[in-house]
Design goal:
alpha/beta; Aspartate Aminotransferase, domain 1; Aspartate Aminotransferase, domain 2; 2 domains; seven-stranded mixed sheet; 19 helices; binds pyridoxal-5'-phosphate
């Protein structure tokens, strides 16, 4: 009997959570259920997910930034169909295939002039691992610096550069000499750099965890200090790259010229995992320095044809549909609409981010009733308020969002880059109603409490810890 995907999925429909609990990660199954996010999705299209009951969900997570072009973009589907139909000679290994060359050419063309070489990988973390290795080889030094709150992936090297202790706990010892720099702290950075053993400082130009930003001036001081010390400046654009912030790379906002760039997520077209590390010819040559070193850094699936096709088709859609300038324009709409809400809702303390990467920070209100409700929520657990919004946003309005990091009241919005005024308006309307409820009475809290009524709040860790512990 031949494989029939539709029939298989129909036969086993509804077993999702049992299967995950039995064979994958039972804790994740529990978290999703406890938050009441346990839905049976049937399909995804554009900015929306649809469940088997026909309910529509606005996806403001976009798979942590993967679905830049939305889900199921017809051009990417068509490109992948073409690739499969063509019986491409994939991963011959002792070969130099055309498609990786073409995708590398496209990426280099969109990068600053010092970027001349591409090393493909399968994920963001793997691209970061490559950056660590190339920086060490080029400089002959071992230490890597990273920012507080940084997130660069969860493989051992990338994990060593993670700014949250919770991720690292129990997995050590990690990379020796990896050192955390308080976000934007130039003096601390210089102190570490003067030790003379730093290979690289890796940064997210806009931080994923909490959507924290620095001024262009501070970034340029940081870059200059790193170069002055003979170290490499690495911009991790796995999340911010490919138009997310309204520029092709987020570092363009600040006029930076990194030695190494990492990309991943959006390059996949939402279909085929891929990552890439981009760098200069000199840095690349320090690793691939002779014929017998041609494979010293490599991976079996590098240049996998389907990933290359997805990447090439994605970049073409970027050009055809003006994705980057659309993301920039929508960033202005987000800021205008959310600032207007911030003017009316005292719970909103900050609106930040660029393009389609937005952080909404909530804080203690001043008026008596609202302040009382805030204290009630926050005394149950620090930074719970934002979770009390994320849950009803999903249940009441079908909007998928996330808390941006542990112990902070920040909701992060990471919509598909194609999201337009309609989606922004829908979200703002939902948030407006919820915050009005929270200011007037406790209905929203009862709604949240009912969802969480399984006693989770009594445990030391709540699901918000786990859901925020992702990109
Ligand atoms: C800035 C950044 N770097 C690296 C990674 C790791 O990517 P991956 O999850 O594909 O390993 C992420 C993932 O969210 C990220 O946001």
């Amino acid at each position: 009997m031949s494989f029939d995907l539709k029939e298989l999925m129909e036969q086993r429909r509804g077993e999702n959570f049992q299967l995950h609990a039995r064979y994958l990660n039972p804790q994740l199954a529990k978290v999703v259920k406890t938050l009441g996010f346990d839905r049976f999705y049937q399909r995804g299209e554009g900015c929306y997910l649809y469940d088997y009951d026909g309910k529509r969900y606005l996806d403001l997570l976009s798979g942590f930034g993967v679905f830049a072009l939305g889900r199921s973009h017809p051009a990417i589907k068509d490109a992948l169909r073409q690739a499969i139909e063509a019986d491409l000679p994939n991963m011959i290994q002792m070969d130099c295939a055309l498609l990786p060359g073409l995708l590398a050419e496209q990426l280099v063309r969109r990068s600053p002039s010092n970027i001349e070489r591409v090393v493909f990988a399968n994920s963001g973390a793997e691209a970061v691992e490559a950056a660590i290795k190339f920086a060490r080889m080029k400089t002959g030094r071992s230490r890597i610096l990273y920012h507080s709150h940084a997130f660069h992936g969860l493989t051992v090297g990338a994990l060593s550069l993670n700014g949250s202790a919770e991720f690292k706990s129990g997995f050590g010892p990690l990379l020796p000499g990896a050192t955390q720099i308080p976000f934007g702290d130039l003096d601390e950075l210089k102190k570490e750099l003067t030790k003379g053993d730093v290979a690289a400082f890796i940064v997210e130009p806009i931080q994923g965890k909490g959507v924290y930003e620095l001024s262009g001036e501070r970034w340029r001081e940081i870059e200059a200090a790193v170069h002055e010390a003979g170290a490499l400046f690495v911009c991790d654009e796995v999340q911010t790259g490919l138009g997310r912030t309204g520029r092709f790379y987020a570092f363009e906002h600040y006029g930076l010229a990194p030695d190494i760039i990492t990309v991943s997520k959006a390059l996949s077209g939402g279909f085929v995992p891929v990552g890439a590390m981009l760098t200069s010819d000199t840095i690349a040559r320090s690793v691939y320095s002779s014929m017998d070193r041609a494979m010293v850094h490599s991976t079996t699936f590098k240049g996998n044809q389907l990933a290359m096709v997805a990447g090439l088709a994605t970049l073409q859609v970027f050009d055809d549909e003006g994705i980057v300038s659309h993301a920039a324009a929508m960033g202005e709409v987000w800021k205008a609409r959310l600032s207007e809400l911030a003017g009316r809702h005292e719970f909103i303390h900050d609106v930040r981010g660029e393009g389609q990467m937005i952080g909404l920070e909530f804080g203690r209100p001043t008026s008596f009733g609202a302040r009382r409700r805030w204290s009630m929520v926050e005394s149950a657990r620090k930074a719970l308020f934002s979770q009390t919004l994320v849950v009803p946003l999903f249940h009441r309005y079908g909007v998928l969002t996330q808390v941006a990091a542990d112990n902070v009241n920040i909701i992060k919005l990471l919509p598909p880059l194609i999201a337009a005024e309609e989606e922004i308006e829908y979200f703002c309307h939902a948030l407006d109603e919820l915050l009005s409820d929270a200011e007037r009475n406790s209905g929203w809290l009862v709604e949240f409490g009912l969802t969480m009524a399984k006693g989770v709040l009594k445990k030391t860790r709540t699901p918000s810890d786990a859901t925020s512990r992702t990109a």
